[in-house]
């Protein structure tokens, strides 16, 4: 079942169950996917493109959550936290820190990176492998850590 079909089914269930917040979040994701398809001039997106849109939506919400929490807006922070929970259901399973570290170490060996100045080379190899499966901030931190050791 494609992501669009899954979103449509979940949207119908949310309507029946009168889950307004969940329904709103699903509609926003569907709209983002449709906008991306229009922008690319195609009817359907590839799985990778769908994942890119989901990652973008998730990042926006995480950034908003941090901003709302730092501003003391607990009402808005809780709403965004609920949206994040809904979005996580559509994301692929996340890699553990150990799995990301193993991928980073392999990339360092592959690129012969030895110093923090080689970070761009390593990130270029790692990010396509972990796309959607690991947070970019986590990957960045692990690469820095591995290159400074």
From TrEMBL:
Signal sequence bounds: none
Pfam family name, one: YqeY
Gene Ontology molecular function: any one: carbon-nitrogen ligase activity, with glutamine as amido-N-donor
InterPro entries (alphabetical): Asn/Gln_tRNA_amidoTrase-B-like, GatB_Yqey_C_2, YqeY/Aim41, YqeY/Aim41_N
Name of the featured protein: GatB/YqeY domain-containing protein
Organism (species): Exiguobacterium sp. (strain ATCC BAA-1283 / AT1b)
